[in-house]
Amino acid sequence: MHIADTEGFEAVSMRRVAAELSMGTMSLYHYVRGREDLISLMKDALMREYEVPDECLTDDWRASISAIAHMTLATLRRHPWAMEVVKGTGLGPGALRHVEQSMKAAKGTGLRAADRMEVLFAIDDYTIGFALREVMRIAPAAGPLGSARRETLLLLERMVAEGPYPELKEAWGSYIAAGGSLEALVDHGHSDERFDRGLNFIMDGIAANLKPSPSIADEAGVVG
């Protein structure tokens, strides 16, 4: 993970890892069968960082789920190469621990285990998708890519103004009329505030689908 963080994901190889460990490449093969297994180990180590302290998992299911989602997003932000490994299918102890914590976080919903698994999928899909959009975002204004960013924003502005996008025109127009800028609007799509709002949309949907547990009288068929 250190190599990927400092040199980029493509730098991760059996030879490079062996050199980092001051051992021969062939010696490393005694422990790891190849780069594919190496990537699987990286994925599991990454998912270990999703783990939250046990005290974050309370009867407040919204707060518990939010804590895990924020920890997951923070981890993916620390390791931009993570998108290269999360698409794999392997499951190790780190992944299983994440699933276990997520299931426990959703326990306060009163949902059965299978439905809590669906909650886990929905939250993970949203969080990983949000992180992916950050990776794919337009380059920051500072630095050598700044001019390219400005040109891209101007192109977007012209496309929306001249194209058949009435809903987008209304949304962008309202934002700019309120004192915002197109650049700020694009950046806002990757803000913590935006993440929280989207996360709350999902949890509101979960809450709206929760059914109150039937009373003993209801189960017995007694009506008032």
Could you describe the 3D structure shown?
The chain has 224 residues and is mostly helical. It has a domain at 46-137 and 190-210: Tetracycline Repressor, domain 2 (Orthogonal Bundle), CATH 1.10.357.10. The chain contains twelve helices and no strands. It has helices spanning 2-7, 14-20, 25-28, 35-48, 61-78, 93-105, 113-136, 146-162, 166-177, 182-188, 192-208, 216-219. Helix 7 (113-136) packs antiparallel against helix 11. It is flat. The chain starts with a helix and ends in a 5-residue tail after the last helix.
Task: Tell me the major beta sheet.
Answer: none
Distance between the termini: 63 Å
> What is the succession of H and E elements?
HHHHHHHHHHHH
| Overall pLDDT score | 84
Helical content, roughly? 55-70%
| Total of DSSP H or I helical runs spanning 4+ residues | 12
What is the CATH class of the domain at 46-137 and 190-210?
Mainly Alpha
Overall 3D shape: flat
Distinctive features:
single chain; 224 residues; mainly alpha; Tetracycline Repressor, domain 2; 0% strand; flat
Topology of helices and strands:
Elements: H1 2-7, H2 14-20, H3 25-28, H4 35-48, H5 61-78, H6 93-105, H7 113-136, H8 146-162, H9 166-177, H10 182-188, H11 192-208, H12 216-219
Helix pairs in contact: 4-6, 5-7, 7-11
Short description:
The chain is an all-alpha fold. It has helices at residues 2-7, 14-20, 25-28, 35-48, 61-78, 93-105, 113-136, 146-162, 166-177, 182-188, 192-208, 216-219. The protein has a domain at 46-137 and 190-210: Tetracycline Repressor, domain 2 (Orthogonal Bundle).
